Prior knowledge:
The structure holds 2 protein chains of 2 kinds. Helix content of chain A is about 65%, strand content about 20%. Chain A is built from 6 helices and 3 strands. Chain A has a 3-stranded antiparallel sheet with strand order 1-3-2. The longest helix of chain A is centred in the last third of the chain and has 24 residues. Chain A is elongated and about 60 Å long. Chain A starts with a helix and ends with a helix. In chain A, about 30% of the residues are buried. Chain B has one domain. Chain B has 9 helices and 1 strand; from the N terminus they run αααβαααααα. At the A-B interface, helix 3, strand 1, helix 4, strand 3 and helix 6 of A face helix 1 and strand 1 of B. Strand 1 of chain A pairs antiparallel with strand 1 of chain B, so a sheet runs across the interface.
Amino acid sequence: xxxxxxxxxxxxxxxxxxxxxxxxxxxxxxxxxxxxxxxxxxxxxxxxxxxxxxxxxxxxxxxxxxxxxxxxxxxxxxxxxxxxxxxxxxxxxxxxxxxxxxxxx
Amino acid sequence: xxxxxxxxxxxxxxxxxxxxxxxxxxxxxxxxxxxxxxxxxxxxxxxxxxxxxxxxxxxxxxxxxxxxxxxxxxxxxxxxxxxxxxxxxxxxxxxxxxxxxxxxxxxxxxxxxxxxxxxxxxxxxxxxxxxxxxxxxxxxxxxxxxxxxxxxxxxxxxxxxxxxxxxxxxxxxxxxxxxxxxxxxxxxxxxxxxxxxxxxxxxxxxxxxxxxxxxxxxxxxxxxxxxxxxxxxxxxxxxxxxxxxxxxxxxxxx
Lengths: 105, 254
């Protein structure tokens, strides 16, 4: 297995999925965001978004806080330190793969 | 791919400006400040320094009061208009280390020109020409500083309108400076520099100083108004676009 392929196989699969990558990228630049913001920005369906957020929560990459704004339920998501570290590591790995690809190509 | 990740990150950073309220109210705030500068600048005063300080105090009080009022209005508007449509985002908390770096950078940006100016006052023979040309160079300096600030913010948040605004503010500063330079500068008597600026001066000494001061304030007022108008136009266009994209509040199903 070449170094480049090994790098690909070592990528964090939880983050590597495109929808989840988008969600983590959105959350990485803010302290917290609610379900509506993530829904509008990702353009996923509500069900799909819920599944991806649950997957990230299971991995310990984000925390969920459920409150009410008046009478409307409000769900807030926040990246954990583990999630931020994983995202930074993912970007670094991806960057390394791209560098290897450029130097070989 | 990294570019797409960066774009997504910028969307989060720029969310505070998605509705245009901050620019709209920021523009109104700048125009308010420019009116004070203009009115106090053209109003006569017995002595040079008290006039200068009274304007600074006025601007300080208005800045603080208006800033707090505008912040409350923005929060109120976002709570009723933006958050029900596109959600709530809490900006990233600024860590003490970042605050210290920010303070250091602001300090350097503000202090370096002042130190440069002081050095010029000490080492350059023509102190009078520096003072006389203040209506030209100060608007250019402020225009460049605001322009850089807008442009860097635009780059950081991926907002093209901020980059455009940076260019326009810089051009406005240059235009005001050029306009003042083309009019020519008053001839400041050497005795004016030795006079007590806290006390009323003889008319012959005071007239050029008055001219410098009123031209400086008119110039700065024009720059503030122009920047305020740019902000209001940008805010209005952003608000209209946001409203068209998000016409009704979103309701999460219970």
